[in-house]
């Protein structure tokens, strides 16, 4: 009988627009912790939580809050775009996201989002 680890974690690396991008996704019982970095650091820490007023998973709204790091509008946009799929796949659990990106262009964010299915 095999035992599952208490905390599931997955790590991957991919080149996005020529920049090495690492993702570490760790699944806790109440949160998903994702580090998405092009610098090898955690970067800005953002909490992404599903809106409790939205009962339908397919149309969930998400609230973002910068916990550590620089408060910028682009940080919130990136966090919502990158964490939504992971949260929904994990039963609408909140996501704690560490972002440290050299390239936060629309194309780069789209490429990262397209690869988010491989994070869990």
From TrEMBL:
Q: Which InterPro entries does the UniProt record give?
A: Proteasome_assmbl_chp_3 (IPR018788), Psm_Assembly_Chaperone (IPR053720)
* A Pfam family annotated for this UniProt entry: PAC3
What domain of life does the native source organism fall in?
Eukaryota
Instruction: List GO BP terms, alphabetically.
Output: proteasome assembly
* Protein name (Swiss-Prot/TrEMBL): Proteasome assembly chaperone 3
- What is the scientific name of the source organism? Oncorhynchus tshawytscha
Q: What gene name is listed for this protein?
A: psmg3
């Amino acid at each position: 009988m095999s035992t599952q680890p208490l905390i599931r974690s997955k790590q991957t690396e991919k080149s996005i627009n020529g920049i090495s991008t690492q993702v570490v996704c760790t699944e806790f019982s109440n949160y998903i912790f994702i580090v998405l970095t092009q610098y090898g650091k955690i970067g800005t820490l953002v909490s992404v939580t599903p809106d409790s007023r939205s009962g339908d998973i397919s149309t969930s709204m998400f609230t973002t809050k910068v916990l550590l790091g620089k408060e910028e509008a682009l940080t919130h946009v990136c966090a919502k775009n990158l964490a939504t799929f992971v949260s929904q796949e994990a039963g609408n659990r909140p996501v704690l996201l560490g972002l440290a990106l050299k390239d936060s262009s629309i194309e780069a964010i789209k490429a990262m989002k397209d690869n988010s299915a491989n994070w869990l």
